[in-house]
Amino acid sequence: MNARGLGLVFLWLWAGLVFLYLPIVTLIFYSFNDSKLVAVWGGFSTRWYGELMHNGQVLDAALLSLEIAVISACGAVVLGTLAGVTLSRFPVFRGRVMFSGLISAPLVMPEVISGLSMLLLFVSMEQLVGWPKGRGMLTIILTHITISAAYVSVIVQSRLVSLDASIEEAAMDLGARPTRVFMRITLPIIAPALVSGWLLSFTLSVDDLVSSSFVTGPGASTLPMVIFSKVRLGVSPDINALATIIVLIVTVGVISGGWYMVRSEKRRELEERMAYAEGEKENTGMV
Amino acid sequence: MSGRDHHKPFGLARSGGIEGLSDAAAMHVVTQWLNRLGLRGRGLVIGIPYFWYLLFFLIPFVFVLKIALSEAAYSVPPFTDLTEWAEGALKITLNLANFDYIFSDSLYVTAYLNSVRIAAISTLLTLLVGYPMAYAIARAERSWRAPLLMLVILPFWTSFLIRVYAWMSLLQDNGLVNSVLMNIGIIDSPIRILNTDFAVFLGIVYSYLPFMILPLYSTLEKMDLSLLEAAEDLGCRPFKAFWRITLPLSLPGIIAGCLLVFIPAVGEFVIPELLGGPDTLMIGKVLWQEFFSNRDWPVASAVAIALLLLLVIPIMIFQHVQAKQQEAEKR
Predict the structure, then answer these.
(1) Domains of chain A: residue spans and CATH
(2) According to the model, what pLDDT value does residue B54 have?
(3) Cβ of A264 under 8 Å from any chain B Cβ?
(4) How many angstroms separate the CA of residue A189 from the nearest CA in chain B?
(5) Where are the domains of chain B?
């Protein structure tokens, strides 16, 4: 493409980024609006943040959502890592095609379907084996683990694919047990992928409305459910304040997570290079 | 060879201690026990996620089908059993009335066609918006690519519900978009944008844009630029070179991106509910209403099965593309 064409494409990119960020920026801006009418500027104020702090329903829902998100993110990382290791390190086993299909389907499955099907499973399981008793936090966590682990497995897989399997093979040749190889070699290398998988699972869980609404029971209202029931009635300024807080937390989390990943990646590269140099020295010494 | 000999005594020394021995013995008992169950380390690594996804992802669809074939009843849970014991024999009643109902009632058929139409138009719009963005990032200077990509992904991390809500306040009659348009003088009085199909298109493009850009970027970034130079040397004009070389080469990314947007968009609930009007019928919204408002679980299940049938082929294409891409990455 010639220079003018490329210039136009870059203009389009910046316009696209403005399109992506403008709604969020205006949302934050209007959360400091004193007026009850969201679109009319009535002066700077933090009153909606104050009102939020006294809204017990919102606070309870936020706590419940955080609790569910932390537990299900941990579960999703464990399950997703197993699935990712399976798909990238075991090229042949019975039922592999079905397995990879089962893992990638949740990525695109409309949530109304996965939510409804999980609910029907839980209801039937309770009838048949008596577990899980009723529906609420536990059923939401199981649903979130199932959906998020699929994302974690994609992240872990792409990390493992780019990693040379010969390091692991070398350790095995030197007599290390598979568990030890995993703990000492594979795990440190995929650690950045696990961090980003955890963060992604956490945000997917905190954010989830549709499938949670299907599988929840009486008394377990998560934050998105409370927001949704308010938003359905129209725009209101305290939701703007709540949204601002959520956006702020997520931005800080993602940026620090990204910073950690970049840093650990650099450290790993440095260690690799140093180990390589040591090996070279030893080799020449031996000769 | 010498490396191996060098390490052997080290390994022996480590397992020689008393503590090491008891550990090894304990490990031995556990492994033997697992072996007897037919499970080795490898079997466990494969088995746990396999079992989980069979139980929590595949088997649920059996129950959805089962309940779609039952009748609604005033009970807890609100549907009838398919099987009953009558005079010592198992009697199975399959009730196809729910499927008959959803395929004969024009509400459901309209909702289906409308979902596919809205999802297809929005997917095309997302591609048109996303392609040049992905292209620009892929052709930016190397050090700029990661931060630009991060900027595209970052909104995806913030709450989906909140991003849709943000458009509600922008698009409403006295919202920012209308007041800007009025100040410029394009319109005299507020036009209705919120609660129209247009708002739904906008919402889908906005929410799913990162899903389109990521696969497009990864194919465009890998492209061999010398092909374009060769075409240029041979006198091919830039636009034609793009049309004949870049576009076909990025086809896997286009397919993956379009499926990642289209499939979830067909079953979308939040966007048509919050941004669409009362006449914006989409199948996800209908399913939600059957379940939560009418509490008719069998009809909701039948709608889910029908939606799944519609999406089975796109989902299988998606998985095929996904598997092929992983093969390509390995090489």
Answers:
(1) 59-225 (1.10.3720.10)
(2) 94
(3) no
(4) 17
(5) 2-92, 97-330
